[in-house]
Amino acid sequence: MKKLTVLKxxxxxxxxxxGFSLTSCNxxxxxxxxxxxSDVNGSYRARLVTSQGGNFNxxxxxxxxxxxxxxxxDFPVNEIVKSVVKDPVKANAAIASLGKIEYKLNYTxxxxxxxxxVELTFDAKVLNLQIPVDGTVKNTVIRLVTKQKxxxxxxxxxxxFALEADKIMVDGVELTPYEVIKYEIPISIKN
Length: 191
Known about the structure:
By secondary structure, the chain is of the alpha+beta class.
């Protein structure tokens, strides 16, 4: 009986010791690293969420930010092409023939030291595509807009922003009916 009592007392002492040794110190505070506007420059790997109507698509993309320009070397145009070309087989053939589409997004930056972020105000330009369908080319102009600011966050050195393709013109005629295509980058990590 005494052995059992001693064993229980020893186990309680070990558990108490482990509990105290695993307790974190209260000194674990985030050290603020002040940002500069040039911290935005660099290469990023991002999670892109594309949505149109009730359809969502998620993929990993890469882009670069330098001198107030974000450059996408492979801008996602699948939803745009499928909005213009309704036949899925022809749309996939057109997407394959287009290859990689480069898009440059201009921005101005403003430092917000209070929140340790760089605020990004975008000046989106139109995207022009020559979509091949049945031996002809559909001249397509996509108006891309940004409805809110983007942010480069000093806490985790990530960038967050969103774009919308709110209007498509095909051979000078507005595409109707058309559902807006949203491109959201909720997080992108600087490489």
